[in-house]
Structure formats: structure tokens, C-alpha cells
Amino acid sequence: MDQAWEDRALPIAQGQTISQPYIVALMTQALKLTDRTKVLEIGTGSGYQAAILAWVARRVYTVERHPELLEVAEARFAEMKLHNLHTRAGDGWKGWPEQAPFEAIIVTAAADRIPDTLLDQLAVGGRMVAPIGRSGDTQKLVRFTRTEDGIEEEPLIDVRFVPLVHGARDARSGSR
Questions:
Q1: 12-159 adopts what CATH topology?
Q2: What are residue 106's phi and psi, to 5 degrees?
Q3: What is the pLDDT of residues 15-47, one digit of tens each?
Q4: Which of 20, 59, 154, 175 has its CB surrounded by the most CB atoms within 10 Å?
């Protein structure tokens, strides 16, 4: 609790981290949300970023690969009475195709490339913010915008995120 007011990433369960408040704010702002925006979040983690999104956007869909983390986050969402937030345990690389298209997608783990499946779920005019780069290296936070002609990329700042891992974990066995 002594670190709660510090602007830095903090460890949470399952070897994951909660992003520093500055990065949460920057990524949220870069999405250009309105109260009509439908958002997909990849990497629920503690639920902090998802809760911020739920206060700003119309509807939030969040995917977490660790069922244990998702269960704790869902309890927080219920306590906060966030009724516009929908959760799923699963593989973030797959997104949530049944709910696509999304006007905004936020990826809270780094990949060396954006999964095509996520780009395919982005509406025309939609924005995706994601860290791009290898784990252990400095990564680049990038805003992707889908236009009628394709995808535009805008680098924002250098960051360090946990890796975006393929697959989902099975809560019963601890395997993917």
C-alpha cells in the first residue's frame, strides 16, 4: 500500500503488472473515447485500465488469459457496479470477434507485431493503442487508425510492457 501513490508499474499476481497511472491515462487519451465508444481491452489484469475505460466509454469488452486474475477483477467490477463492462477468459490474440467491430482497442501487453485478428476487429475510423516490440527491450507505444484505405500508424512514446502471450490458461490445471 505504500506504493499506491507512485507513478510506476507495480507487480500483481501471475507475474503480471499494473501499468503506471501516467501510461493508463496516456493510452486512454490516445483512444479518443466518447460516451458512445465500444472498446475492446486485451489484458484485464487487475481491472484498473478496464474500470477507467468503463467510466468513459459506452461499453467495454475485456479479455484476460489468466482466469485467476479475471476472477479478482470481476469482483472489483461488481463492487464498483460497472454494468457496461463485459469479461472473458481467453486468448488476447484472438480478441472478441463475436462483438466486433470496435471503435477502440487497447492492448496492455507487448507483441512484436499486432495480431491481424485484432486489426480485423477494428471499425473504419477506429483506433487501437498497443505497445510493439520484443519482451525485455524498450517497446514503442503505437496508435493504429483504420481508414477506408488501410491502417495508419502513429508512434507515441517508448514503453516497457509484459509480453502478449498466445493462448489462455486453464484455471484448473494452470496450463494453456
A1: Rossmann fold (3.40.50)
A2: -120, 130
A3: 555 567 789 899 999 999 999 999 999 999 889
A4: 59
